[in-house]
Amino acid sequence: MLEIEDVRVGYHRSTVLHGVSVEVPANGVAAVLGHNGAGKSTLLRAAVGLLTPTGGTVRLDGEDITRRRPHERVARGMAYVPQGQQAFPHLTTAENLQLVADGRRRGREAVAEALDLFPALRALSGRRAGLLSGGQRQQLALARALVTEPRILLLDEPTEGIQPSVVAEIEETVLALAARGGLSVLLVEQHVGFAMRAAQRYYVLEAGRVTSSGEGGGDAERSVREALSV
Ligand SMILES: Nc1ncnc2c1ncn2[C@@H]1O[C@H](COP(=O)(O)OP(=O)(O)OP(=O)(O)O)[C@@H](O)[C@H]1O
């Protein structure tokens, strides 16, 4: 569904990705793993259009979107959850979701459906986002993305810096979303076990190059750990 082909991209004069190819299957999950600084976030920024590649192609449903602006990609069904659990800290959980829902035909239903996935958030709907825990803020960030009813979700380390019990909740939600169908996910993740349970395809990124890739699933976990030496 999303094809990133031979993409070269970076910042100012420094190239970070030296010809990276990644494919996200329709209704499937592709995981990107790699050490700090390998270029994982840069790949997602190029996928959503925050960075424009100097080489290569990004295609969505076969359409070349390499030069499309982020809002055009969002209009085509892309949602991006960057690292850092972003939400408006002075607005409540409910207001943060409402802000995304406003003006959407199915806004109200989409908020209700997102809250069904995160019962803990429903209980916190009146609490300001700035007072939520890191894990709860991450859940809110995911819920905000889901209110846009995306067809493809780009997730940048949804479990980063989050306590293990909440990591399990986030993992469950991502697995449930993927199993529900109608959604593809490009998942950047440091937890190898989670990434391999979720993904049909995996890519290991090292210093801006894919050094290992293959089919996901538990059997591949060992080769990924070896590739990453973790
Ligand atoms: N805004 C920026 N301007 C210049 N260089 C940047 C910028 N963002 C990232 N870089 C550089 O690009 C390289 C890849 O960074 P990136 O954030 O994509 O890696 P990552 O694999 O996501 O790492 P992490 O797991 O630590 O988030 C690093 O060398 C980083 O210093």
From TrEMBL:
ATP-binding recorded as keyword: yes
GO MF annotation list: ATP binding; ATP hydrolysis activity; branched-chain amino acid transmembrane transporter activity
Keyword Cell membrane: no
Keyword vocabulary terms for this entry: Amino-acid transport, ATP-binding, Nucleotide-binding, Transport
Region described as Disordered: spans on this chain: 211-230
Pfam family, one: ABC_tran
InterPro entries, alphabetized: AAA+_ATPase, ABC_transporter-like_ATP-bd, ABC_transptr_urea_ATP-bd_UrtE, BCAA_Transport_ATP-bd_LivF, P-loop_NTPase
SMART domains registered for this protein in UniProt: AAA
Biased composition annotated in UniProt, kind: Basic and acidic residues: 219-230
Any single GO BP term: L-amino acid transport
Domain ABC transporter: from-to ranges: 2-230
Cited PANTHER family: HIGH-AFFINITY BRANCHED-CHAIN AMINO ACID TRANSPORT ATP-BINDING PROTEIN (PTHR43820:SF5), HIGH-AFFINITY BRANCHED-CHAIN AMINO ACID TRANSPORT ATP-BINDING PROTEIN LIVF (PTHR43820)
Similarity remark: Belongs to the ABC transporter superfamily.
Protein name as it appears in the record: ABC transporter ATP-binding protein
